[in-house]
């Protein structure tokens, strides 16, 4: 059952004498102030460990990926502008809170980015979601744009751009170019991502210094096929069951 497969804290090998707390003290340096790496809690590292594991079956891969996606969306929403909003509580007491300012939409980079749409909908009911179909060439890893369908008024919206993997950066860069060409200001784009390579996120943030990125983890690097290492393999194949 799913209950049986609830995550356990990653534990260090007994021979090292290290505690579970030591095992999750993983270095994951944030780079720039436009880049937010989720707090490296033991829960997040345990969830990432589950989806990185080659032995994890599809049902669990989807379930635990969705949990991380929810954390990314919740953090992403913290980066949207708010304005002061005075209300009165049931006690008749005035309270000055905040409310979101402006309209948003999601844009998923197909296909893997579509896995993040439900997490966004769970937090933002009836949010509009545009699509951009970009595929990497399997030999060269070059990203190619095939199709896009975006809300007509996208230039007036904050855009949550969705893709779980940022490897060379080619796909995300192409997607942002489409958004900019439709008049979306760079600083109105927020890229939500599960795992980034250091070179991909560096290139991406140099090209778009005003664009904010929220990621769960910056990994070690890329292999000779431009896959993220240690990574988790092909996210789209594992999530949608096409491996
Ligand atoms: C994957 C992933 C990203 C892209 C990242 O998609 O979802 O979109 O590769 O690599 P990059 O940073 O080097 O461009 P892929 O093209 O494999 O298609 P998929 O979503 O159908 O799996
Ligand atoms: N796309 C993936 O799904 N995984 C990678 O490691 C790189 C690109």
Automatic annotation (TrEMBL):
The keyword GTP-binding applies. Its cofactor is Mg(2+). Pathway: Pyrimidine metabolism; UMP biosynthesis via salvage pathway; UMP from uracil: step 1/1. Its EC number is 2.4.2.9. GO terms for molecular function: GTP binding; uracil phosphoribosyltransferase activity. Residues 1-23 are annotated as: Disordered. Keywords: Allosteric enzyme, Glycosyltransferase, GTP-binding, Nucleotide-binding, Transferase. CDD domains: PRTases_typeI. Residues 39-242 form the Phosphoribosyltransferase domain. This is uracil phosphoribosyltransferase.
């Amino acid at each position: 059952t799913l209950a049986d497969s609830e995550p356990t804290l990653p534990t260090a090998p007994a021979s090292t004498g290290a505690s579970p707390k030591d095992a999750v003290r993983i270095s994951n340096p944030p780079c720039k102030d436009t880049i937010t790496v989720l707090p490296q809690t033991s829960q997040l590292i345990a969830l990432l460990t589950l989806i990185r594991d080659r032995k994890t079956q599809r049902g669990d891969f989807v379930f635990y990926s969705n949990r991380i996606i929810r954390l990314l969306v919740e953090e992403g929403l913290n980066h949207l502008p708010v304005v002061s909003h005075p209300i009165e509580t049931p006690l008749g007491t005035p309270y000055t809170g905040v409310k979101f300012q402006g309209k948003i939409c999601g844009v998923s980079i197909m296909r893997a980015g579509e896995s993040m749409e439900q997490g966004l909908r769970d937090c933002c009911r009836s949010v509009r979601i545009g699509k951009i179909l970009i595929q990497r060439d399997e030999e060269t890893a070059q990203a190619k744009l095939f199709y896009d369908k975006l809300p007509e008024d996208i230039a007036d919206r904050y855009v949550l751009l969705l893709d779980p993997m940022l490897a060379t950066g080619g796909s995300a860069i192409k997607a942002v170019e489409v958004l900019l060409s439709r008049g979306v200001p760079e600083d109105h784009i927020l890229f939500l991502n599960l795992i980034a390579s250091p070179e991909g996120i560096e290139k991406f943030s140099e090209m778009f210094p005003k664009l904010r990125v929220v990621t769960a983890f910056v990994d070690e690097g890329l292999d000779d096929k431009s896959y993220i290492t240690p990574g988790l393999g092909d996210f789209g194949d594992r999530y949608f069951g096409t491996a």
